Amino acid sequence: MLTEASDRNGRPVYLVSDEAYWRIVFDDREYVSPTDFYPWSFLIYTYGKTLLTPGQRLGYIALPPTMPDREGMRQALMIAQLTIGGHGVPNAALQRALGDLEKLSVDVKALQRRRDRMVESLRASGYDLHSPEGTFYLLPRSPIEDDVAFTEQLARDKVFILPGALVEMPGWFRISITGNDDMVERALPIFERAAKAAR
Q: Engineered SS bond to 175: which of 35, 37, 99, 138, CB 3.0-4.6 Å?
């Protein structure tokens, strides 16, 4: 499809594949990168997501070996990084730790157990949500139309979620399953009460 669009436009349509979560895949699935199949691709990866350290700026952009004029594109990316002032450059400690960081990941099986527990319980409480195949977020539909008001209601009971309106998904909300199991168990009855109150 992208090759056909490139041919129609007379120039390549580039694919940017954000693969920050490729290691966080559930149910023993295997992640396959679209960059394996399309030569005009940029693979973007950050260690911050995999290690739950989003404030740390350490990652990379990889170009497939099959990308036409790959060296010219690599040089353009280097110039762009220098032009913006080097803000995307990791500090020296992170650069030295890279070999050790490459071996680390969050406990995917623990995230999967939390996903399963929350999806089952939220569905039983009447929430509409998909069971994700990876990452560490759940995206249920808000039981009331105003997702911001719903998140404020839960915050009063110290359950903190992200309103979908902030990520261009009004009417939904985002739950992170990176908290510990006790936090999940404490939150589930609060979600259930909120769903009942919305009926």
A: 138
